[in-house]
Amino acid sequence: MTKALALLGSTGSIGRQALEIAEYLRLPVLSLSAHRNIGLLEEQARRFHPALVAVSDEAAAGDLKIRLADTGIRVVSGPEGVIEAACVPGADTVLTAVVGFAGLRPTLAAVKEGRRIALANKETLVGAGELVMRAVREASASLLPVDSEHSAIFQCLESCRDRGEVKRILLTASGGPFFGYSRDALSRVTPADALRHPNWHMGPKITVDSATLMNKGLEFIEAMHLFSLPPEKITILVHRESVIHSMVEFVDGAVLAQLGAPDMRLPIQYALTWPHRLPSPANPLDFSACPSLSFGKPDAETFRCLALAMEAAKRGGTAGAVLSGANEEAVELFLAGRIPFLRIEELVETALRSVGHVSAPSLEEILEADREARLCVRKSQ
Ligand SMILES: NC(=O)C1=CN([C@@H]2O[C@H](COP(=O)(O)OP(=O)(O)OC[C@H]3O[C@@H](n4cnc5c(N)ncnc54)[C@H](OP(=O)(O)O)[C@@H]3O)[C@@H](O)[C@H]2O)C=CC1
Ligand SMILES: CC(=O)[C@@H](O)[C@H](O)COP(=O)(O)O
Ligand SMILES: [Mn+2]
Question: 1-deoxy-D-xylulose 5-phosphate reductoisomerase C-terminal domain spans which residues (predicted)?
């Protein structure tokens, strides 16, 4: 059970819900971080009185220092400031809800300090899964998934004493807002269309990833690392209702599933209270509102990002960092209205084919692969 929290990405979708849970559980919050949204960060700082707040954008950090001058709260800046927030003295748990690869270095720093990590930032494991999991083992840190599917799998595996008993993981996918669309229809969708997820309210990047099915590809790689499973033992199952958050099939044919309303407050809270369960403000599951549950296969021919992610999953090494970095950059261009939807997959594929591969990379080589992938996307847009 968490005693005190460091929260990275507090102004985002996960960050705001995490603060709701911290308040509900009466957990002290010792640090907060954001990129630029200092209006909300100031409000949060005044409400939760952390020892430290970090703002990764230097100019915004300067403004926040002035705004918080009367509070005695320390304001630190830049990527190094976010690392300081991750390692704030006294916090036993760090919830990493920064979006994108910017989450890697602070997460790694907290792992090395042996903290409990409640991990929402999936790009960390996609880009540097082997390195991060090795650091977790070396520091005897705990890594608790917040991503809804991975929290579900984690919960289904809790009574499993021998991983050899796992036949496969069934990773559920909503199919996103464009489920059933043809390539022709996809060529005309807008950012506003892509931001309309059928079941979840999330930040813009992950919402677009759900629309391209890249989110499921990222989650496939995240699951491989978190649960030490080869790609053959993970099956993606389209489940439009997002009620079953994922399942585990065992060698005797038994299947365990975790169900719940689509409400991230539940997996956030479980990562903070584990190994205990406490009452939660999350919406309860109303079975009468979901009379039928459907299942199907994902369409990786229409949604090419999924096929590219599976390719990167099998390739390993720096492929995950290239996939993730190129995708982040391409999604940003799409959201800015500078490229059409289907250009996202083309740019990711170009990066995967162009950036040199390293099979057992160091942190520096991973960071370099991410940099090169982003550069490749910007040059090819
Ligand atoms: N939202 C959800 O329901 C789920 C999210 N996740 C994962 O959790 C992570 C966060 O997602 P979500 O909350 O939706 O994202 P949001 O975009 O809503 O929030 C992102 C947070 O990260 C901060 N941030 C943005 N860029 C940087 C940067 N370069 N350096 C440091 N901080 C930065 C933002 O600050 P600012 O506000 O100032 O820009 C904000 O606090 C993602 O990895 C996502 O895939 C996983 C499962 C579900
Ligand atoms: C809430 C959460 O964990 C998201 O990752 C969500 O699962 C996205 O849904 P799909 O990618 O399945 O559309
Ligand atoms: Mn998810």
Answer: 143-227
Interface confidence, given as ipTM, is 0.99
Residue-wise pLDDT tens digits, 24-46: 999 999 999 999 999 999 999 99
Q: Which residue, chain included where needed, has tokens 């005695």?
A: 72
Separation of CA 189 and ligand 1 centre (Å): 24
Whether 99 lines ligand 1, by a CB cut-off of 6 Å, is yes
Ligand-binding annotation for 123, yes or no, is yes
Torsion over CA: 302, 306, 310, 316 (sign):
positive
Q: How far apart are CA 361 and CA 368, in angstroms?
A: 10
Number of H-type helices and E-type strands within the chain: 16, 11
Distance from the CA of 71 to the center of ligand 2, in angstroms? 38
> What stretch(es) of the chain map to CATH 3.40.50.720?
5-145
pLDDT in tens, 290-336: 889 999 999 999 999 999 999 999 999 999 999 999 999 999 999 99
Residue extent(s) of CATH 1.10.1740.10 domains in the chain: 151-380
- Rounded mean pLDDT for each run of 10 residues along the chain, 381 residues in total: 98 98 98 98 98 98 98 98 98 98 98 97 98 98 98 97 96 98 98 97 98 98 97 98 98 98 98 98 93 95 98 98 98 98 98 98 98 98 91
CATH class of 5-145: alpha beta
Q: Maximum CA pair distance of the chain?
A: 62
- Closest Cα partner for 243 from 262, 256, 257? 262
Is domain 151-380 in CATH 1.10.10.570, yes or no?
Answer: no
Residues with CB under 6 A from ligand 2: 147-149, 173-174, 176, 200, 206, 210, 215-216, 264
